[in-house]
Design goal:
This protein is mainly beta. The protein has 2 domains: 85 residues, Immunoglobulin-like; 101 residues, Immunoglobulins (Immunoglobulin-like, Sandwich). Helix content is 12%, strand content 45%. Strands 5, 6, 8, 9 and 10 form a 5-stranded antiparallel sheet that branches. Strands 13, 14, 16, 17 and 18 form a 5-stranded antiparallel sheet that branches. Strand 16 and strand 17 form a beta hairpin. The chain is rod-shaped and about 80 Å long.
């Protein structure tokens, strides 16, 4: 009788062991919880008019859906609930970061994307000085300072002002201004106002609420008597 009982117990133990060691049981015992395990940096150029894109992250299993919420200095931005965010002028000087939530069945996990500090649009100027002969009877020789803009977002400088300066002893004296159109500005001055001899000239962009101030390298203008 004792031997019979012992054999029955042994069979029960073997049966339970077989069940517990099946692939399905092992997978259920070791399956990790749904979670975000990493992410890449937020993409885009953090300047007004540019788009930032939240990274979708890396998860223990692929999410079935996502939710996004962009934050400015840690505070949710109303209506900014898409993967992409259009940077506004009011974001300059502030940090933007995406909060990403993933859903898998009834499980939810989240992570905070990389923050980016918004700055003004960068700009730079090049200077080309030319002499121009007007049509007969229209006046004397004039010189023209031609300034070409180079910016991360060209449209941002149109309508701005470029000013030509005389540079002497470390001081600048304004010689004339012009409005930027299609990335270029032409500052024309009558020859009678052009400096005598060799004069060092440069041009500067005054900047705006979304574009940085910038100046060109100086160039030498020589007036022939």
């Amino acid at each position: 009788m004792v031997r019979v009982v012992t054999r029955v117990v042994a069979w029960v133990v073997l049966a339970l062991t077989a069940v517990l060691l099946t692939p399905t049981a092992l997978a259920g015992a070791t399956a990790p919880l749904f979670a975000a395990v990493g992410h890449n940096p937020t993409q885009g150029t953090p300047v007004p008019g540019g788009y930032l894109t939240a990274d979708l992250g890396t998860w223990t299993s692929p999410p079935e859906s996502y939710e996004f919420q962009w934050l400015r200095d840690g505070t949710p931005i109303a209506g900014a609930t898409a993967q992409d965010y259009l940077v506004q002028a009011g974001d300059i000087g502030h940090e933007l970061a995406p909060h990403v939530v993933g859903h898998s069945g009834s499980d939810t996990a989240e992570f905070m994307g990389t923050a980016m500090t918004v700055r003004k649009i960068g700009s730079s100027l090049t200077l080309d000085v030319r002499r121009v002969h007007p049509a007969p009877g229209k006046g004397r020789l004039v010189w023209t300072a031609i300034s070409f803009m180079s910016t991360e977002r060209p449209w941002a400088t149109d309508g701005g002002t470029v000013t030509a300066y005389k540079k002497k002893h470390g001081r600048l004296k304004a010689l004339g201004s012009s409005v930027v159109t299609r990335g270029a500005a032409f500052v024309r001055l009558p020859w009678k106002r052009a400096p005598h001899g060799r004069t060092r000239v440069m041009v500067c962009y005054q900047g705006s609420d979304v574009v940085d101030v910038s100046c060109s390298h100086s160039a030498v203008v020589r007036r022939q008597r």
